[in-house]
Structure prediction request, 162 residues.
Amino acid sequence: MDPPAHIFANRKTLDQFSPEQFIGKALVVDCRDLKEGQAITIDKINIDKAKLSDFLFFNLGWDKRWNLETYFNDYPCIDDTVLEFILNSNFKGIGFDVMGLDPLRDNNLNRHKALFKNTDIVNIENLTNLDQCGNDLFWSSCFPLKIENCEGFPIRAIAWYE
Prediction:
């Protein structure tokens, strides 16, 4: 999990977030039909359900490639419209079952920079089993340890249903 300080030294670290930042309603966006290098577009998102969620998770099916060479292939990434939707919403966090928010070839981390520049949000990478969460809202938690000045930490993401 990365907070804004992961990119910008003067921004919020994980320990500066309240515990409420790490728990809430979540929605999985199913993107498993996308091919390598394709963009995650706004039409993939159920906007009405997304507006009711605190976390937006993108399921690319990439967790099934863990420990395979293809895990490091050109995974799909959100496009500018999806990034704008996230920035203009009130999400506590976003998450992916890939190793990053930016394409592998983007050494400048443009999406990370846009996400964290003015938004107090967390970005979760390498999620697993998003295919088990369904297509409706569910409860999710993703607590990191509270370590002073922490700009990134592993978490255990949990989903449950009422």
